[in-house]
Amino acid sequence: MHAKRLLKATVVSASAMLLVAACGGSSGSSSSAGSAAASSGAAAEAPGGPAFAGPVGTGEGQVNILAWPGYVEDGSTDPKVDWVTQFEKDSGCKVNLKTFGTSDEAVKLMQGGGWDVVSASGDATLRLIYGDLVQPVNTDLVPSYADIFPDLKMQKFNSVDGVAYGIPHGRGANLIMWNTDKVTTPLDSWAVTFDANSPYKGAVTAYDSPIFIADAAVYLMATQPELGITDPYALDKTQFDAAMALLTQQKDLIGEYWSDYTKATQAFESGSTAVGTSWQVIANLAEADGGHVAAAKAKEGATGWSDTWMIAKDTPHINCAYKWVDYIASPSVNAQVAEWFGEAPSNAKACDLTSDKNFCTTYHAGDTEYWKDVYYWNTPTTKCLDGRTDVQCIPYSEWGTAWSALRS
Questions:
Q1: How many structural domains compose the chain?
Q2: Domain that holds residue 216
Q3: Number of H helices, E strands in the chain
């Protein structure tokens, strides 16, 4: 497991999502840096243009990478944690890295230009695609892609109209977690975090981000099927209003909203928080600290996240960019990153190479059934992501506005 310092950086980063992401912080609305098409939801087609035809040739000498903290380690954090040096040696491409703290920041940096590759969370990917900031990826030029778990390929957040826009990196689910001293019966439902009569009123916690609206939508999918929600990121006005009503009801139960994992972990361990939303990696750390906690995926399903390596549309370092996305998704490197960061790897062959032989079991890496009701973060647009054309859906910019109003 990676250092807590690193986890804090990634968790706080992700909470800003949508955007959190990842693999997770501000809770404000989507930045103006987001593309108009993805933010306001204009029914625009995905950017055209062919993917790089290849073949991948000699590198250009460098590659400029934007990434979440923990994804591109060069040994400076821990001498034993270094997968950059080998890449530079093998490829001849020097890595110039900049980490970012939120998805909004990543989008802004990509808009400013000068970056070749970005590790984008699902809250940012469509903004990058519709903003014409990234290019389709020729997966035939990425040998590692063949070993990516099939259920991570061609998802709504990393492809458009059957065109791949990146290489999957890793994933995680958002879990219900509880203090076992305060909650003595194991939980399997989000009900105790939403029900107005919850016995844990005042001791419930929730993720402090507009994307948490999707968590309410997942619960409504199971408990109010008459609303017709099939995708928690594709909410028409009636569905969105129902989700906000549920969140307003929940607000009376909340002791505190969390974005800083250290505070959330301490609250769970002390018992001031009895139950609420968490991630597998946070639950594992809390348990390792001796905290009396447990976590599970709720029977209603859950939101989750999967990050994607994407290539800038106008990169002058196309060969180095392709060399990087293939390398970082390769079995041995994907295994190292997954263990260091704390996420399920995307490469199926990585599971045989983790130092902890139970790692992929703990993170459900190859458990297809586990992920069937995990709804990966995506960027809501007015063009409904569930395929409906008879209504408009509420775009992420309005999710941000509504969340800010709820939290005020």
A1: 2
A2: 174-303
A3: 15, 13
Pair 147, 50 in one domain: yes
Residues 354 and 238 in one domain: no
Identify residue 195 by its one-letter amino acid code.
D
Per the domain annotation, does 391 fall within a domain?
no
What would the mean pLDDT of 7-13 be, rounded to a whole number?
40
CATH code of residue 260 = 3.40.190.10
Is residue 328 included in any domain, yes or no?
yes
Q: What is the pLDDT of residue 275?
A: 97
Residue 17 tokens, joined? 């999502």
Q: Do 152 and 8 belong together in one domain? A: yes
Q: How far apart (Å, rounded) are the C-alpha atoms in residues 307 and 404?
A: 25
Give every CB contact of residue 212 below 8 A, 6+ residues apart in sequence. 206, 247, 277, 403
- The percentage of residues in the chain with a pLDDT greater than 70, rounded to a whole number, is 88
> In 26-112, at which residue ranges do the beta strands (DSSP E only) sit?
62-67, 94-99
pLDDT at position 13 = 39
Q: Are residues 164 and 183 in the same domain?
A: no
In angstroms, rounded to a whole number, what is the distance separating the alpha carbons of residues 125 and 135? 11
Does 33 share its domain with 85? yes
Model pLDDT for residues 184-207, shown as the tens digit of each residue: 999 999 999 999 999 999 999 999
d(CA 88, CA 51): 25
Q: What is the DSSP string of 327-380?
A: HHTSHHHHHHHHHHHTSEESBGGGGGT-SSTTHHHHTTTT-HHHHTTEEE----
Supply 16's token pair. Answer: 């800003």
DSSP-derived secondary structure letter, 29? P
pLDDT at 101: 79
Residue range 336-349, pLDDT digits in tens: 999 998 899 999 99
- What pLDDT, on the 0 to 100 scale, is given for residue 350? 98
